[in-house]
Amino acid sequence: MSDVKKVVLAYSGGLDTSVIVKWLQETYNCEVVTFTADIGQGEEVEPARAKAQALGVKEIYIEDLREEFVRDYVFPMFRANTIYEGEYLLGTSIARPLIAKRLIEIANETGADAISHGATGKGNDQVRFELGGYALKPGVKVIAPWREWDLTSREKLMAYCEEHNIPVDFSNKKKKSPYSMDANLLHISYEGGILEDPWAEAEEDMWRWSVSPEAAPEQPTYVELTFEKGDIVAIDGEALKAHEVLEKLNKLGGDNGIGRLDIVENRYVGMKSRGCYETPGGTIMLRAHRAIESLTLDREEAHLKDQLMPKYAEVIYNGYWWSPERRMLQAAIDETQKNVSGVVRMKLYKGNATVVGRKSEQSLFDESIATFEDDAGAYNQKDAEGFIKLNALRLRIAAGKGRQQS
Amino acid sequence: MSDVKKVVLAYSGGLDTSVIVKWLQETYNCEVVTFTADIGQGEEVEPARAKAQALGVKEIYIEDLREEFVRDYVFPMFRANTIYEGEYLLGTSIARPLIAKRLIEIANETGADAISHGATGKGNDQVRFELGGYALKPGVKVIAPWREWDLTSREKLMAYCEEHNIPVDFSNKKKKSPYSMDANLLHISYEGGILEDPWAEAEEDMWRWSVSPEAAPEQPTYVELTFEKGDIVAIDGEALKAHEVLEKLNKLGGDNGIGRLDIVENRYVGMKSRGCYETPGGTIMLRAHRAIESLTLDREEAHLKDQLMPKYAEVIYNGYWWSPERRMLQAAIDETQKNVSGVVRMKLYKGNATVVGRKSEQSLFDESIATFEDDAGAYNQKDAEGFIKLNALRLRIAAGKGRQQS
Amino acid sequence: MSDVKKVVLAYSGGLDTSVIVKWLQETYNCEVVTFTADIGQGEEVEPARAKAQALGVKEIYIEDLREEFVRDYVFPMFRANTIYEGEYLLGTSIARPLIAKRLIEIANETGADAISHGATGKGNDQVRFELGGYALKPGVKVIAPWREWDLTSREKLMAYCEEHNIPVDFSNKKKKSPYSMDANLLHISYEGGILEDPWAEAEEDMWRWSVSPEAAPEQPTYVELTFEKGDIVAIDGEALKAHEVLEKLNKLGGDNGIGRLDIVENRYVGMKSRGCYETPGGTIMLRAHRAIESLTLDREEAHLKDQLMPKYAEVIYNGYWWSPERRMLQAAIDETQKNVSGVVRMKLYKGNATVVGRKSEQSLFDESIATFEDDAGAYNQKDAEGFIKLNALRLRIAAGKGRQQS
Amino acid sequence: MSDVKKVVLAYSGGLDTSVIVKWLQETYNCEVVTFTADIGQGEEVEPARAKAQALGVKEIYIEDLREEFVRDYVFPMFRANTIYEGEYLLGTSIARPLIAKRLIEIANETGADAISHGATGKGNDQVRFELGGYALKPGVKVIAPWREWDLTSREKLMAYCEEHNIPVDFSNKKKKSPYSMDANLLHISYEGGILEDPWAEAEEDMWRWSVSPEAAPEQPTYVELTFEKGDIVAIDGEALKAHEVLEKLNKLGGDNGIGRLDIVENRYVGMKSRGCYETPGGTIMLRAHRAIESLTLDREEAHLKDQLMPKYAEVIYNGYWWSPERRMLQAAIDETQKNVSGVVRMKLYKGNATVVGRKSEQSLFDESIATFEDDAGAYNQKDAEGFIKLNALRLRIAAGKGRQQS
């Protein structure tokens, strides 16, 4: 294990990754570079500096990646109306490629030969970090302490801290949650605890980002979202940067009880797990994006997008953002978004994010043809007969030859 | 036009199809057989008998098809979690194949050589009726009066009624709605009127089947749905027939403000149209079905179902229920449903249908493996390294050879 | 019919389209512009000028579109390894979008309000011409004489010629073939005659572009094809323009008995038809393209291309080249071709086009890993255990819970 | 390693698996059960009995699985026209599920707790054997000696033999080939040696099952293949069992130089490899199956099959025969084969397997409609106008609103 000289660690500043700093130094006898990013998890990142310094870290990276995260990862993903397994908005999955990319870039800058992360050996995140790492720097060494060490219980971790003088108050700042949580600008997730029984209802006090529908205001909130080429660029007429859009929608959604989700999902590593998620802004955004597409996309490209989406979602969920197949799918998706511009009006009320209007200068909705009233010849109803007759021809021939008909 | 001897008409008992009876008799000098079905549209069908008799119809079919409709059409469709264009639950589309089938069966029974319907030349329903008709009886003659006649305005229709002594009070029973509506056990739809402006919000008094979320009870309703092989067979432990399931879920959903939808959709005949829908029971059912599948389906079959679903939805929307491709897709879907059994617990509250628990004797959720706690060796975290390494191999080789990496 | 002032006709110079010139002048009392293109059909196009002049045409377009045809239509299509229904290389389909585009461009240049073509009402070509026309000029009037006139037999056509002084020697230049044929640089096709019986073997003297395998040389021909970004740019080291590539491959293939095909296909208008095709160059090109991709494409993008290909083929076959869905698919396909460069060596021998070698500077083939000999640690065989274990996990859990296993 | 009591080994009787017998006995101190199957590899299996006995094996299974192999694995796969990466007929892949199934059944019969095989850690076969094993007996222990032992060179293997008195003449029966080969009724494969250079042409004396096209007879052979529900049941009118069909077609194909393939493929474990294959009967069968489908399948089910095929091929190639997704796809495929019956006539000549005729009582080819001659009203050409107009509508609306047109 002596061949690692320097390792870049995705460092949250919390207890677990602090233990990892020390464990890496000891086990690999190597230098540790910490990397802490603000991707909207809702906690200060600056305090990680002092903690890292206290652990003897000399190269400390602390960065605000919120805009890049939303602009280059969240928004492109939402252009595809991406949902995993019919429900999940991929809040955790989409943050990993950016972290992986920065880990590698920092490794290249600092001359590190390894990267490390605090994800367990049972989950998807290890896969996402490591696939990203290997794709961007094929010779990198990846160290996944949770798959290597024997600190497999909280007791052992605490003993390790005591033994190595790692200040345990790290973990006492807030009451230890019974849940395993992860957060970024797109969502906060909960796993473990009573959620391990899929029949058990999540407790109300678990949720952190949204009020319950019951507790939401009695009056609906209306909001207008302006799209340009598939991305939201303004809310109620105010131009916003990508991450500001999501921050504002999270506030609006959370206040109105929108975006809670409770599912059982299939992990890439092979087992089912139960997770709860709050994605207030994303839930609004998905609905709104579909609405602006409903006006501006051609039918066949829309249907093709829908057919490709589950694959695209799987690619991202499984950790293949930095892959040729993701780029290929993205090229197809982005090709369709050139005209996905306009305004969607939504009503937010007690858990409901409802589209109530949509308009666009690129609209393909043609009132003169769609109308039930006189269309002044814009559409010739007699055309329908030939259309139906030829579409029926193969079915008629088959039936005429005695084929199964029902 | 003298070659039609007898035509079976899909007859609602309303003004339009009553005019069609007379118009067919006159124009084709043929006998008309009426067929009126209760598929849960919420109106009495028996009154259609007297009206048909008054128009001189001798062969009158009035049938209760509610159970067949839900059991053989709605339920099979829901096994696929079918949604058209990300939003629409296909409430109108799924009723047409059954009507088409009965029209043809009645034509065969009565020796009729033609069928007729009251759908316009601009919509999807003409396609669905006629494709079904042709697929089941390839030599049938289809008469679509709205594509043929010149009664293109309400004034002309009324004049025709007066001229032919068709009692116009037919239409006065209820105040004429400004919307074009269609209903069956799965949904009620609204088109036309102010909805032809996609920016205009639907008026509250348009909606007929559900209260608004605002008007729904302050207390949530919890309900347990029991699935067997993909279909709901009991609600809160009470065994129900297929149509009773949907009736009960419609009541529960409608009372709690669930299932309203407002979309712009792409018609098969080529234009976009705006429609509003209420699908209270279906909305609950879809969520619940996904939840029971989340426990009982294998990951890869679930993902494959999701990839096939948009095509399956398109097939049904476009009117190809009676086609080889629908049967082929159905065979794949039904193959997956053998173990989709268990119970889903849902919370209904002011527009929200939320899954809060799911359990199944066929569950593939394995607590011993999924747990974040000690799993006693059920899962070997070290396996993950090899898993990731080999999955990364192609990416590493590419990166090692200088390929684009991001 | 008086509303057409000027019509652009796709004019071959043959008897049928000459009749159409006259019929359009007479029936629509309009001016006719003729457009004749060399797309490699193997007949002189210049003689069409005199014929058109003799018919009173004043605006005559005669163009050599061979390079544009291959470069902008054939090559992009081959990047997807496009085959319709497992066999057909789409030789006719791919020529239509270019003709449609030029018809519309000429209509715009000459102020014409209509276009016309000589395709029948039973085939795919009418659809391809007209979809292209409508997509590029939505208000254009399309005149399809074969769907309108009553010249439904050869006798009636000849009578019309005599009546209108159309020189019938037009058709006598070569002995009238019993087959309906179409040719361009990519292929020549045969339909009709004895081919209407799918059990009947095509007669040897039908084939025009290739010798039979029996008659081909006893010695194989080896050829090296150089690809750049998915397209062939040189043969045996000689740089060639797109159409020169195809001309040369047609010669090589035809001489060696390569590229004959005899199939029953499904037309877009609903019936099956039997066609024979000679695609000598295309057959070589398809094989070679797959071979260079086998070295240079990532596995997952290759598989995704294969999954999209049948849809892409259908889009082109059905006439939707000028559609958003084709552009969307093309964007995905082209994204993958950046590194599809290198050389493929092929052996041509009596009907066989066999790949015998391939090399590329962008090759992802890694001898050090692929070898059965000692790989010096490039690949750790122990990784395979974890890879298999986690991939098997979902199957093991299911089997452990008593699910169907075989 | 003391926890294995009895292991069932896939035993070829060759040197490598003989070493494995001894190594298992020694390393795991366990009983070894050998299983040797005739799946048409072209070598006697009975001699394996004496060899196993000499190694001290008490439970010896030797079985003729040829019919089961072709009937239950090869034929179902061919119903889908299955090809991996555009070229490969999956000859190796399709044999593994049957071997895995018998290994597990024998383990259950003999009370063994483990299975073992002689596949390396670099290839696909280990994955296929082990996924099958785990899927059918989730608690089984799998021993893959090539991933465990240190006999990593031929020298070490020979030393091991000498040390353990394993008769080395096992390997001298035939001159050691420079290639790694695998054979069964569907194909024989070659890897390694000079093939590790993708630019090098395979040597003529490598090929074992077919003559070269050059050496094939100067006269073509015609053959008629009778299909029932997608499978070949007779050749030239003679009813044959499944494996007899393939044996006969292998003979016919091999004699006529048919079925050689030389490709670079993507392994599931992540690298590219170069392989050569001879699949004489399969190559004929694939072509013939497509031909009978071309007459008897509906267009849309045919296209859907083509879209699903690459996924189905991937599932089999990757080793997931015993999976829910394979069963799901098979259900769809088999649903389409009910009417795939009839006769295909083929011409075999110097490497070419050409379809020259096809007929079926279930044919959907309708001469009366397809004809270019007068069809007596079977098809109304005027229907095409409406068909095209409505299919063009979305394109026209888009163009009318100024959208990109080309």
UniProtKB/TrEMBL annotation, chains A, B, C, D:
<feature type="binding site">
    <location>
        <position position="37"/>
    </location>
    <ligand>
        <name>ATP</name>
    </ligand>
</feature>
<dbReference type="Pfam" id="PF20979">
    <property type="entry name" value="Arginosuc_syn_C"/>
</dbReference>
<keyword id="KW-0547">Nucleotide-binding</keyword>
<feature type="binding site">
    <location>
        <begin position="10"/>
        <end position="18"/>
    </location>
    <ligand>
        <name>ATP</name>
    </ligand>
</feature>
<feature type="binding site">
    <location>
        <position position="180"/>
    </location>
    <ligand>
        <name>L-citrulline</name>
    </ligand>
</feature>
<dbReference type="InterPro" id="IPR014729">
    <property type="entry name" value="Rossmann-like_a/b/a_fold"/>
</dbReference>
<feature type="binding site">
    <location>
        <position position="277"/>
    </location>
    <ligand>
        <name>L-citrulline</name>
    </ligand>
</feature>
<keyword id="KW-0028">Amino-acid biosynthesis</keyword>
<feature type="binding site">
    <location>
        <position position="118"/>
    </location>
    <ligand>
        <name>ATP</name>
    </ligand>
</feature>
<feature type="binding site">
    <location>
        <position position="93"/>
    </location>
    <ligand>
        <name>L-citrulline</name>
    </ligand>
</feature>
<keyword id="KW-0067">ATP-binding</keyword>
<keyword id="KW-0055">Arginine biosynthesis</keyword>
<protein>
    <recommendedName>
        <fullName>Argininosuccinate synthase</fullName>
        <ecNumber>6.3.4.5</ecNumber>
    </recommendedName>
</protein>
<feature type="binding site">
    <location>
        <position position="88"/>
    </location>
    <ligand>
        <name>L-citrulline</name>
    </ligand>
</feature>
<dbReference type="InterPro" id="IPR023434">
    <property type="entry name" value="Arginosuc_synth_type_1_subfam"/>
</dbReference>
<comment type="pathway">
    <text>Amino-acid biosynthesis; L-arginine biosynthesis; L-arginine from L-ornithine and carbamoyl phosphate: step 2/3.</text>
</comment>
<feature type="binding site">
    <location>
        <position position="128"/>
    </location>
    <ligand>
        <name>L-citrulline</name>
    </ligand>
</feature>
<feature type="binding site">
    <location>
        <position position="189"/>
    </location>
    <ligand>
        <name>L-citrulline</name>
    </ligand>
</feature>
<feature type="binding site">
    <location>
        <position position="124"/>
    </location>
    <ligand>
        <name>L-aspartate</name>
    </ligand>
</feature>
<feature type="domain" description="Arginosuccinate synthase-like N-terminal">
    <location>
        <begin position="6"/>
        <end position="167"/>
    </location>
</feature>
<keyword id="KW-0436">Ligase</keyword>
<comment type="subunit">
    <text>Homotetramer.</text>
</comment>
<keyword id="KW-0963">Cytoplasm</keyword>
<dbReference type="Pfam" id="PF00764">
    <property type="entry name" value="Arginosuc_synth"/>
</dbReference>
<feature type="binding site">
    <location>
        <position position="120"/>
    </location>
    <ligand>
        <name>L-aspartate</name>
    </ligand>
</feature>
<dbReference type="InterPro" id="IPR048267">
    <property type="entry name" value="Arginosuc_syn_N"/>
</dbReference>
<feature type="binding site">
    <location>
        <position position="124"/>
    </location>
    <ligand>
        <name>L-citrulline</name>
    </ligand>
</feature>
<dbReference type="InterPro" id="IPR018223">
    <property type="entry name" value="Arginosuc_synth_CS"/>
</dbReference>
<feature type="binding site">
    <location>
        <position position="125"/>
    </location>
    <ligand>
        <name>L-aspartate</name>
    </ligand>
</feature>
<dbReference type="InterPro" id="IPR001518">
    <property type="entry name" value="Arginosuc_synth"/>
</dbReference>
<feature type="binding site">
    <location>
        <position position="265"/>
    </location>
    <ligand>
        <name>L-citrulline</name>
    </ligand>
</feature>
<dbReference type="InterPro" id="IPR024074">
    <property type="entry name" value="AS_cat/multimer_dom_body"/>
</dbReference>
<feature type="domain" description="Arginosuccinate synthase C-terminal">
    <location>
        <begin position="179"/>
        <end position="397"/>
    </location>
</feature>
<dbReference type="InterPro" id="IPR048268">
    <property type="entry name" value="Arginosuc_syn_C"/>
</dbReference>
<comment type="similarity">
    <text>Belongs to the argininosuccinate synthase family. Type 1 subfamily.</text>
</comment>
